[in-house]
Amino acid sequence: MRPATQAVHVGRPPHEPDQPLNTPITMASTYVAGGDLEYGRYANPTWDAFEQALGTLEGGRCLAFSSGLAAVATILDLVGQGQKVVAPRHSYTGTVMQLNDLELRERVAPVLVDMTDLDAVVAACDDASLVWLESPSNPAMEVVDVEAITKAAHAAGAYVVVDNTFATPVLQRPLEWGVDLVVHSATKYLSGHSDVLMGAVVTRDEELLRVLKGRRDLLGAIPGTFEAWLALRGLRTLHLRVEKAQANAQELVRRLGERTDLTEVRYPGFGGMVSIVLPTGDHADLVQHSTRLWVYATSLGGVESTLERRRRWQAEAPTIPDGLLRLSVGIEDVEDLWDDLSQALDVAGR
């Protein structure tokens, strides 16, 4: 099956008389002993359905987590004491904050690099235990050569993780490039309706899957059943939402490129995420407070369009421009999105 069909059909009950069309919500903390489930911290049929669907879309096997950061933490927990982790200097602040915390406790030795400088990345891979990638990066929208970096990392004996939250498996499948682990904040595009906190990890490595599941079982970083059901329902329309958001983003980028009051427009060429750079942080603040349709919010990947000046967060990289606004383009009518954004930009330019 092709991805659009997989998104709709995988993880459903069998097509048999009296079977429900949708996977039911199994609200159970305890199961009758003697089978495969045993206890609510170990497994749940509703999680299983979501994991089947996302695993199939990414081309591997999936584990669901309570949040994207829970998934990140579980992966980083596998890094040995004092070992080196190579990560992008521009990446999700939650990931960077976890690395900083682990460094302060002398658990790991992070090295943050410019992932667009392939030579620098290859050099940094030496003696690394783990190489963490984002493509596109958050919020710089940098695209990196995942396949080349993966080969270099593997040659150095390191595992490779790609945060695929922005691109989703509709637009890229990093496991096909040899990546060991794919991580998602399922809160974002996968669930797609700004009503779920959840994360996921996908791999083709059965041993990694076994170890990660063991850590999830032990730490209890499990999703709620209702959250898993909502995320699966959202996943059914992922391909449609990504297609519409991407079309909107590409048109907005075309129009934004014609304006003279922007310092820069950053778009990787695909997906629904765009960053624009205004002359100052004050200009960017004025824009995010002047929109009526676009929502000033820190999350992304929902059906509604949101925007945020990222340097308002202390943990954001200092190399991110103070006037950078990250735009998560939704599925509204593009003319309404443009009318609102352009009037806000006009307000900031007065």
UniProtKB/TrEMBL annotation:
PROSITE patterns: CYS_MET_METAB_PP. It holds the Pfam family Cys_Met_Meta_PP. SUPFAM superfamilies: PLP-dependent transferases. The keyword Disulfide bond does not apply. Its cofactor is pyridoxal 5'-phosphate. GO terms for molecular function: cystathionine gamma-lyase activity; homocysteine desulfhydrase activity; methionine gamma-lyase activity; pyridoxal phosphate binding. Keywords: Pyridoxal phosphate. InterPro entries: Cys/Met-Metab_PyrdxlP-dep_enz (IPR000277), Cys_met_metab_PP (IPR054542), PyrdxlP-dep_Trfase (IPR015424), PyrdxlP-dep_Trfase_major (IPR015421), PyrdxlP-dep_Trfase_small (IPR015422). One of its GO terms (biological process) is transsulfuration. It comes from the Bacteria. The modification N6-(pyridoxal phosphate)lysine is found at residue 188. Gene3D superfamilies: Aspartate Aminotransferase, domain 1, Type I PLP-dependent aspartate aminotransferase-like (Major domain). Residues 1-22 are annotated as: Disordered. It catalyses: L-methionine + H2O = methanethiol + 2-oxobutanoate + NH4(+); L-homocysteine + H2O = 2-oxobutanoate + hydrogen sulfide + NH4(+) + H(+). Belongs to the trans-sulfuration enzymes family. This is homocysteine desulfhydrase.
